[in-house]
Amino acid sequence: MEDEKPFAPPGTAHELEEGTAFTPKFDADGLLTCVATDARSGDVLMVAHMNAEALAKTLATGEAWYFSRSRRALWRKGEASGHVQRVIEMRVDCDQDTILIKVEQIGGACHTGRRSCFYRAVPLGNGGAVTLEFRDERVFDPKLIYPKGTR
Amino acid sequence: MEDEKPFAPPGTAHELEEGTAFTPKFDADGLLTCVATDARSGDVLMVAHMNAEALAKTLATGEAWYFSRSRRALWRKGEASGHVQRVIEMRVDCDQDTILIKVEQIGGACHTGRRSCFYRAVPLGNGGAVTLEFRDERVFDPKLIYPKGTR
Q1: Which positions in chain B touch A21 (Cβ < 8 Å)?
Q2: Distance between CA atoms of A58 and A75, rounded to whole angstroms?
Q3: What is this structure's pTM?
Q4: Of A43, A93, A126, which has the smallest distance from its Cβ to B117's Cβ?
Q5: Over chain A (151 residues), what is each successive 10-residue block's mean pLDDT?
Q6: Which of A28, A87, A137, B93 is the most buried (most CB within 10 A)?
Q7: What distance in Å separates residue B130's CA from the closest CA in chain A?
């Protein structure tokens, strides 16, 4: 794996917030948080992480690459499932530690088979135990899409 | 500060993904990632963190509370600025480590004065240095809203 350090180090808070230099602020583990939304509906599809290499590949290819914290591995979204994300627009937040990508999502973003990972509502205002409410149906069968537990 | 432990511990991956028990999976620092979107437009406004107390207060009050990692403090959104977030709907993701709230945002979500923290686009496909493109104007003057550097 090549060692990519394609991004300049973060500057002052003012430079980060009001500048035009893209200097992403990776955390202690070398990661940014990335929110992916459906470019058409605006729905939040998933939240994942990118290291510098995943971010550079996403910028270069226009397809979403992430870094899996559980597998400690670079991860091209849709590599196993075919459910790739074509990036229509990328945004960065004020302090440049979070990325937003608006994507064309093939199939579903969630490995459980739903279009979005956020398929359950958390009802407000209840004390005590909270019971989740399912809101979204599966759009694919994960057993058919992910052989051998891959994603 | 009271010690709130209002949430049951996470179960198996299957229970987390397909169950109806809300058992949020806080990270090693006791935090969840939270994405706030504009309930009307669907735009992503900000990404921040909640500890168990912030999550419990958000559920109980229907207004967004966060935990500031930089200030190590519970933070009622809008406490200094008046730019509170009324939660219309809360969702949780497949593995219950990320929360999505759809909010009515008074004023702007971003301390820089913009409606959303994601006010700059990152152009795709360019090698080398990336120049950000400003997309959103300020909706308030942070100098007037945050006296003495508060948020």
Answers
A1: 129, 131-132
A2: 11
A3: 0.94
A4: A93
A5: 71 96 96 98 98 96 96 95 96 98 97 97 85 96 77 52
A6: B93
A7: 6
